[in-house]
Structures are given as C-alpha cells and as structure tokens.
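Hello,

Our lab assistant flagged a job as stuck in the queue for most of the afternoon. It eventually completed. Since we weren't sure the result was trustworthy after the delay, we are filing this so someone can double-check. Below is the sequence as submitted and the structure that was eventually returned. Let us know if re-running is recommended.
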Amino acid sequence: MSGQLLKDKNAVIYGGGGAIGGAVARAFAREGARVFLAGRTKATLDAVAGEIAAAGGTAQTARVDVLDQRAVDEHAAGVAAAAGGIDIALNAVSFPHDQGTPLADLTLEEFMRPVDGFLRAQFLTSKAVARHMGGDRSGVILTLSEPGAKLAVGGILGHAVSAAGKEAFSRALAAELAPAGVRVIGIRPHAVVDAPAAGSYTGELFEKIAAAAGVSVRELLEGGGMAQGTLLGRLPTLAEVAETATFLASDRSAAMTGAIVNMSAGALVD
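-- returned structure --
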C-alpha cells in the first residue's frame, strides 16, 4: 500500500514481546515496516511475530539481553547486514522499580535498580543501532519515559531519577546524532490503562499502592487517583501509544528531534 507510513523501513524493537513493545510492533508492521523483535523471552516475541505474520506483515525475532553489550551489538549488526540498514529503533524494555517506599525505608539497591537498568539498556541499544543509521537514509531512535521525570511525588525516588535520566539522555543524544541525519524523540506516557491485561508488569508495579488503598490495580488506574489526576480524566491506551510512536517514526514528523512527547493525558502540562 503506497499510503503506508513506514513502507520498507527496518525497525528494531527491544522488548518487542511486552505490552508497549508488542503494540508498537504491530502498528509498525501494519504501516509497512519490517519489524525485528528482540528480548529475553522467545515465547512472547514469537507470539507477537505470529500476530504480525497473520495480518500480512513481516517480523523476525531474536533472544537478546539488552544488558549484554556484545549480544546487542551482534544483533544490530546482523539486522543491518541482512536488511540493508536500520531506520527505526525503540527500546521498550522494562525493569522492576519500587513505587511507594519512602527514603527512610528505601535501600540503595532498590534506588539504583531502575537507574542502572534503564540507562544502561538505553545506552547500549542506542549505541548499537546508531552506527547503522544515517547517511543516505535517515534514522529515528525512540525512547520511553514516565511522568515521574517531572512529577513532585514522594515514594518514587529511583523511578523518578531513571525517568528524568532517560529524557536527558534523549535530548543530548539528539544533539549528537542530528548531523548524521538521525532523530531522537522521547515518548512520555502515563501508566497505560489497558497494559495489565496485555501482559505488562504494570499489575505488579502498582500492586502495593493498590493494596494500601483497598482497591484492585485496574480500579486504581481507571477510577482512582491516577486517572482523576489528569486533565482528561483518563489514562492513555496501548493503541494511542503505538499510533503516536508510528507517527514519530515516520517522515511526517521529520522536523521533530530532541523532543519529549507528553502522553500523560494532562497529568503534566509542559
């Protein structure tokens, strides 16, 4: 279809078997991209690839630990060699992080877990794909953060620092890669309302807070303070995140780089 936004683009999605990664992968494939799914769990990657193939798209999977620099480099080089380059990359890998524990009760290990995990993964994946982007064909690196990057809320120290770090990384990398024709854009969704049913770790993440409030995680997200704390009175959906990522990865957003796209439904007003 000539109207496909990502026709003939090569897209690598780390964490492609997860809720957000899988949703983005399906949207990219629908718009004509050749999708390369990487992650630690082959079964979930293959499930997403099967859905893409059933819909007429193209997807390949590979078991890759994003904290293993050699594995990440070899995978990116293999994709580029086979496909002729890498046009789009998204790191949708998630790491456990505490929500709800104050400083007095938070250990250094709990604080550092998301900071080290998220930023190490963002560095390694970005470095691996960037060397196969730019030149004759432009490139786009998409990153994911959270409203914790700017919200003044207690009990989310590690989460907030890691989110802010990912956004700072995206802006600085955009400046560095712009001369090569590579754009870098961050996406900042709030908690995704339909992610628990899609296999996200969201349920585990908010279980402690929901239990303390005497509600289920879904009730916390949809009817509790999270949704009501936004201007729209709701949280973003997986489909909305995926469609936004697809637009940002396309040539229709060619003038955008160094930006953080606010998908907090108005929890944050930039």
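-- support follow-up --
The delay was a queue issue, not a problem with the job. The result is valid. The longest helix spans residues 108-130. The radius of gyration is 18 Å.
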